[in-house]
Amino acid sequence: MIRTSGLVKQYPSGRALDGVDLAVPAGAVLGLVGPNGAGKTTLLSILAGLRRPTAGTVEIDAERSRVAVLPDAPRFDPWLTGREVVDLARRLTAPDAPEAATDRVLAETDLAEAAGRRVAGYSRGMLQRLGLAATVVGDPEVLLLDEPASALDPIGRRDVLDLVRRMRGTATVVFSSHILADVQDVSDHLAILDRGKLRFQGPVDDLLGTGTSAILVRTRDGTAAVEDALSGAPWAAGVERLDDRVVRIRVTDLDAAERNLPGVLAATGVRVVSIAPDTPTLEDVFLEVTR
Amino acid sequence: MTAWRLEWLRLVRTRRLVALAGVYVFFGFVGPLTARYLGEIIDRFGGGQMTVVVPDPVPTDGIVQFASNAAQIGVLVAVAVAAGALVVDALPEMSVFLRTRMPSAGALLLPRLVVTAAAVGTAYLLGAAIAWYETAALIGGVPAGGMIGGAVLAVLYLCFAVALVAAIGARLRSVLGTVGTTVVVLLAMPLLGLVEAVGRFLPSHLVGAQVGLVTGESLGDYLPAVAITLAVGAALVASAIRATGRREL
């Protein structure tokens, strides 16, 4: 469990954090999002013990050695090999863990082949994966990840997100990212930070809404017949044409809509490409909260 | 891989150990050689147009040559090597890795301090041993007691210099700035030492011990400086650990 109370960080240039009360349940994966300059890195640095708050308190329900940190652009002594970096991290954080743990995390981060090479020759993506390997090798109880996938290609990003997802339940994870789809994908909790203030925190479902209140229908033949057919449906509060082939149906009774909509569409004879729930994305909510 | 092995690899793989040992070994060889053949060297480069009378070398001349080079260029190289290891926050992204994994600032700094000081001290002792042997072979024997005592005190001074680097490096993030500031402080000490009442208490007094102890001075002449050097050195180490622990990244 991580809890901050009234956290303030004042720099000479301004206030980076302004009374942040954050609570992350044990075992949760919390996505920390916010615009540039929102205070995300400052918050993570304070949680990591790398900076001191001007005011407020931090409680982390884990020993300091069990808190692992990954900066957004990790760097290592270039004359070390990848294996030496991870093994050093293992010796410092989990000296009782077997040496095999080093090889296991190197394999999980797809660095097994490059493990014997010196870090000087690693690309930025490889450095980020190496940083992640060095972070998880000690089986930490708390992980603080600052933009862990920012330098990775799509496959590397997927691997890292899978790794973060696998930590759920075994470790408390706080990770910041500008890629909101990633955050929505792996987080079960969210915190939105804006200009040093916490605008929202809580389960993802609470933020995005658990129930669908609208349905998107995409057709091949135009939407006029669909609009006409839905005008009298008691479960449809309104139909909005988004373009020539897409309508958004606001529903009052989702159960009835899901039962009856396919029949209504079939009766129109219109070729239907897709029927999908229209739930707000994190990006929609983020823009609304931070605007 | 441990923090101690990390520091050893830092010395070996960055070739800092080669630089350190190379400098002192070079001066160990060259010092007695130039003392022995100074007259011939001057004659050869003088072109026969002038006559310079050089007194016959005595054994201590070989040690004097070594010690003076070691006290200047040797210390500069030692300070540069120490700064490379001890300015832990020169690259913050790099220091995050160790800072968030080491249990304390002391655990972060002590291996760096000890390994660096050991390397500097060993390099000096190697150079001094070579100078001693070569002096004996070319010019004549130098008393072992004075030579060993002088070398130990010179190493103590070098350890003090390493501690000074640590204390300055914990406050500056720049390796170059740390080297420059340390050199200024080390140069200022002999100037302060010109005040006779103060000089024999300063760590810089130990610089002259290598020559002093083979030319008739007694170990007791250096004890006040030894005591001050140990005390100030320990305070510098404590200060470095405290400043490193308090620094924010």
Structural class of chain A: alpha/beta
What is the number of E strands of chain B? Answer: 0
Kindly, what is the distance between the CA atoms of the first and last residues of chain A, rounded to a whole number of angstroms? 30 Å
Greatest chain-chain contact: A-B, 29 and 21 residues
pLDDT < 50 stretches of chain B: none
**Beta-strand residue fraction of chain B:** under 5%
Please, what is the average pLDDT of chain B?
90
Annotation, overall tally of beta strands of chain A:
14
Order of helices and strands of chain A: EEEEHEEHHHEHEHEEHEHEEHEH
So what's the overall shape of chain B?
elongated
H/E topology pattern of chain B = HHHHHHHHHH
The largest β sheet of chain A comes out as:
6 strands, mixed
- The poorly predicted ranges of chain A are none
Average pLDDT over all residues of chain A: 88
**Helicity of chain B, in percent?**
over 70%
Name the overall outline of chain A.
elongated
Question: Cα-atom Rg of chain A, whole angstroms?
Answer: 24 Å
What can you tell me about this protein's structure?
The complex is a heterodimer of chains A (291) and B (249). Chain A has 291 residues and is α/β, with parallel strands linked by helices. In chain A, α5 links the parallel β7 and β8. Chain A is elongated. With 249 residues, chain B is mostly helical. In chain B, α1 crosses α5. Chain B has ten helices and no strands. At the A-B interface, β6 and α2 of A face α1 and α4 of B.
